[in-house]
Design a protein that fits this description.
The protein is mainly α. The protein is built from 3 helices and no strands. The protein has one domain. The chain is rod-shaped.
């Protein structure tokens, strides 16, 4: 039975050992908490603050970039609108100048045509007058030769003018 009683001692529960083990565990937890957990938590807290600071800076930079992009887009739209306006203005000016040039050319052509028509009419009248004078002189000469006597030039000229006028119409 010696063997049986030795086994019991080995399997027996000693309360003082358990209390000492719990006490040692409690002291170990307190020491770890003071020297390990708090510094690690402080480091983790610092890292968390750094990361949140970096995130806030990144968000601010993103917002600033968005506002810059929006400002750039507005400037670009403004520049496009201004360019379109300049093009439209230049086009209108070119059309107006073109219309003015065409109107001036038409006006000048009309004036030249009128002068040409007046010159033609004047030349036609001159030619008709010269022709009348020449024809009447020839007729008077011929009539003088045929009749052999002098004819009243004034009466004869009136008859010839009437004949020429009726032919011209």
């Amino acid at each position: 039975m010696i063997v049986a009683s030795g086994t019991l001692d080995f399997l027996s529960v000693n309360v003082w050992h358990i209390l000492m083990a719990i006490g040692n565990l409690l002291i170990l937890v307190l020491i770890l908490k003071k020297f390990l957990f708090k510094p690690v938590q402080n480091i983790l807290k610092q890292r968390e603050e750094e990361i949140s600071g970096a995130y806030s800076k990144a968000e601010e930079a993103l917002k600033e970039a968005e506002s810059e992009r929006e400002l750039y887009r507005e400037k670009l739209d403004g520049a496009k609108a201004e360019a379109d306006e300049l093009i439209e203005s230049a086009s209108k000016r070119a059309k107006a100048e073109s219309a003015e040039i065409i109107a001036n050319a038409r006006e000048e052509a009309a004036v030249r045509r009128k002068h040409a028509e007046e010159d033609i009419e004047l030349s036609r009248r001159k030619a008709a007058e010269e022709l009348k004078g020449t024809v009447s002189e020839m007729v008077i000469e011929l009539a003088s030769e045929v009749v052999g006597r002098e004819i009243d030039e004034k009466a004869h000229k009136e008859l010839i003018d009437e004949a020429i006028s009726s032919l011209g119409e």
